[in-house]
Design a protein that fits this description.
The chain has about 130 residues and is mostly helical. It has 4 helices and no strands. The chain has a single domain, classed as Four Helix Bundle (Hemerythrin (Met), subunit A), CATH 1.20.120.910. The longest helix has about 35 residues.
Length: about 130
């Protein structure tokens, strides 16, 4: 992989990292906003049991999305570590050692596996 491609992938990873950090900041802000309920009420107590259930469901969805973004951020950070620590091996499959197609890395810059190895991994998970 040439320096221009590596620079492009580094930029993509940094952009993804910034996007995820912004998204996690949004979740952090919404989790810490305890003065107001998610429905806009000034009180954190719901007047109806159905409202309590809806508020709880919405909080759980936010926690789930934040957790997914956190895992994605970990993968992006790992890719940046690989890029900085060993740039000549960045973009090589961790299983077979073949080059990962640049198109795949451009679409998914934190990819560790080539498409063939990833398909095998997913097939094994389905069984």
């Amino acid at each position: 992989m040439n320096k221009k491609q590596l620079s492009h992938l580094e930029s993509r990873l940094k952009d993804e990292r910034a996007r995820v950090m912004k998204e996690l900041g949004y979740y952090d802000e919404s989790f810490s906003n305890s003065d107001q309920g998610s429905d806009g009420d000034l009180s954190s107590y719901s007047f109806h049991m159905a409202d309590q259930g809806t508020d709880t469901m919405e909080r759980e969805k936010q926690f789930l999305f934040a957790s997914q973004e956190g895992r994605y951020l970990w993968h992006v950070n790992q890719a940046l570590r690989r890029l900085y620590s060993d740039p000549e091996n960045f973009g090589k499959c961790h299983q077979c050692g073949q080059e990962i197609a640049f198109e795949r890395l451009d679409a998914l810059p934190h990819a560790r596996l080539c498409i063939t190895c990833k398909e095998k991994e997913e097939d094994e998970k389905r069984r």
